[in-house]
């Protein structure tokens, strides 16, 4: 790795031992990538406050400084964590106090996390506590080099915002926040951002459900590469692109996609592929749509639903409002949670949406989700969701059955306690 | 029968042990249980299999950016693989190998997932960029 004089000085300890450890990690990481240099960043989205057994043990025995050193810098050194050098936000973490008595999430983790928030807040970490920092004001500009983790946020930042980030981890974001540096590799380079696969949509894609299924198809097809989507679809909304990317990052490892005419780096199909020859298109038609629906519903056999989960990635205000309308005047048999960023819960509270949802028996919960916290309502055996990502991950994480469908299918399941969803 | 693979260093070091080969990419978050060192993704070919103390050979990392943190946890909880050999380099796999702190290599002259079989005896010299494989019968 070629380091600048400033970077060499940081590595040699000119800015203290924590920054030196951060540079050491970035150099080890950069060399692992066979990367030539670092690039500057002023926007880091990572996680310091998320409780885990390993972190809880470290904090109990040695405090938060040590936990940051070990987990966020991969260092065995002893030092005090300095202020964050560049703007840094906390992504989603474990459940907070709004889940006490609702989720069987360990109370000591809720307390540990509150303690973490006050520690890291003082260090300059913005506690956004959401997997969708772009929904609550963290919006990098096109071409900006950022260091984000959280697969659904990474794919959104690259594809929809045109910012440049790789899928970073806890240690690389921890080091970036203290140095303002990240390896200039992969998605940071123009030539690695061009499309690799062309998907021709031959069946109308017009709903949130459809965008999730198309994303799940795209991820499964391209794995880590970059799909370009053309064909029969309506103008997507923010939530559609959020769902598409999250699904593509779950079934594959998609960090970048293009929708010509919609996403900023692809004004045309040709631009999406740069100078490369257009590949032969893979069709997404009726048969593929049915296959994806079956795949997403292959982890359900019992139609008795105990739990319904909406909002993954975290719901927008519009999604909360849609859920409120679907729930108005109804009474729920199953548990229903809507996962939201806390900043948007304030808007939902003021707008009266939360009241409608709670009157029906549902909960609006912030900061986390059942997958992050590994916690669903007690006794849950079968759940239903409108999120392709949660349908993918939750059966493995919690050992429960999953149904995937529309918001309306999910709300109906919550009201009747039975899954009756089907592909329409 | 024994043969050599040549690749490049991801994490330096030397390790020797039994290979565990995955033909499918591996998820960290949602894909492994770091407390037990076991693959938990239900549809995975290695569902329920423990990688602790094995030379983990796999095509690459997939899924959440929690990948590195989950593999780092295997080191902190004593369930880490002995070494990692993977086909495709990504930030998840690279950072994951760095924080797991086990000898790791990629960029091989032959795909290790095709060349090595579960149960083969493998000696990795990541400093020299060489992997020696003693195939089982």
Automatic annotation (TrEMBL), chain A:
GO molecular function, one term: lyase activity
Keyword Iron (UniProt): yes
The protein's name: DUF521 domain-containing protein
InterPro entries xrefs: PMDh-L-like_dom
Pfam families the record matches: AcnX
Source organism: Amycolatopsis acidiphila
Keywords annotated in UniProt: Iron, Lyase
Domain Phosphomevalonate dehydratase large subunit-like: 1-412
């Amino acid at each position: 790795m070629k380091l600048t004089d400033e970077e060499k000085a940081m590595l040699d300890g000119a800015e203290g031992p924590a920054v030196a450890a951060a540079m050491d990690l970035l150099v080890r990481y950069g060399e692992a990538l066979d990367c030539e240099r670092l690039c500057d960043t002023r926007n880091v989205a990572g996680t310091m406050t998320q409780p885990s057994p390993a972190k809880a043990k470290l904090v109990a025995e040695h405090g938060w400084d040590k936990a940051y050193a070990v987990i966020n810098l991969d260092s065995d050194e002893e030092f005090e964590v300095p202020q964050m050098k560049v703007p840094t936000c906390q992504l989603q973490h474990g459940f907070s106090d709004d889940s006490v008595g609702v989720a069987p999430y360990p109370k000591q983790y809720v307390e540990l996390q509150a303690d973490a928030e006050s520690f890291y807040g003082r260090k300059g970490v913005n506690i956004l506590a959401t997997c969708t920092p772009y929904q609550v004001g963290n919006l990098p500009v096109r071409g900006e080099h950022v260091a984000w983790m959280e697969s659904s946020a990474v794919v959104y930042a690259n594809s929809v915002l045109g910012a440049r980030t790789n899928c970073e981890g806890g240690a690389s974001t921890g080091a970036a926040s203290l140095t303002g540096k990240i390896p200039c590799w992969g998605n940071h380079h123009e030539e690695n951002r061009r499309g690799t696969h062309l998907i021709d949509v031959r069946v109308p894609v017009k709903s949130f459900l459809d965008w999730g299924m198309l994303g799940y198809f795209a991820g499964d097809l391209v794995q880590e590469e970059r799909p370009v989507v053309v064909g029969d679809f309506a103008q997507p909304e923010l939530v559609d692109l959020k769902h598409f990317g999250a699904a593509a990052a779950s079934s594959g490892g998609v960090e970048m996609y293009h929708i010509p005419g919609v996403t900023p780096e692809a004004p045309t199909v040709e631009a999406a592929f740069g100078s490369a020859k257009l590949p032969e298109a893979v069709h997404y038609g009726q048969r593929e749509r049915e296959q994806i629906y079956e795949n997403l519903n292959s982890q359900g056999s019992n139609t008795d639903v105990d739990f319904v989960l909406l909002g993954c990635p975290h719901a927008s205000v519009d999604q909360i409002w849609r859920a409120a309308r679907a729930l108005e005047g109804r009474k729920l048999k199953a548990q229903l949670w809507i996962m939201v960023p806390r900043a948007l819960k304030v808007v939902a509270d003021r707008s009266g949406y939360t009241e409608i949802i709670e009157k029906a028996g549902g909960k609006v919960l912030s900061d986390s989700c059942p997958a992050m916290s590994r916690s669903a309502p007690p006794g849950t055996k079968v759940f239903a969701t409108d999120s392709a990502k949660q349908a993918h991950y939750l059966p493995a994480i919690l050992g429960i059955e999953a149904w995937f469908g529309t918001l309306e299918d999910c709300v109906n399941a919550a009201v009747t306690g039975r899954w009756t969803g089907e592909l329409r | 029968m024994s043969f050599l693979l040549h690749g490049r260093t991801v994490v330096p070091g030397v390790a020797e042990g039994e290979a565990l080969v995955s033909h499918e990419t591996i998820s960290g978050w949602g894909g492994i249980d770091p407390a037990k060192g076991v693959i938990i993704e239900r549809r995975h070919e290695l569902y329920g299999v423990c990688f602790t103390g094995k030379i983990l050979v796999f095509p690459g990392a997939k899924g959440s950016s929690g990948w590195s943190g989950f593999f780092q946890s295997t080191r902190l909880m004593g369930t880490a693989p002995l070494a990692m050999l993977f086909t495709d380099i990504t930030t998840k796999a690279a950072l994951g190998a760095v924080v797991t702190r086990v000898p790791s290599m990629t960029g091989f002259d032959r795909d290790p997932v095709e060349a090595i079989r579960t149960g083969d005896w493998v000696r990795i010299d990541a400093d020299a960029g060489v992997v020696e494989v003693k195939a089982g019968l």
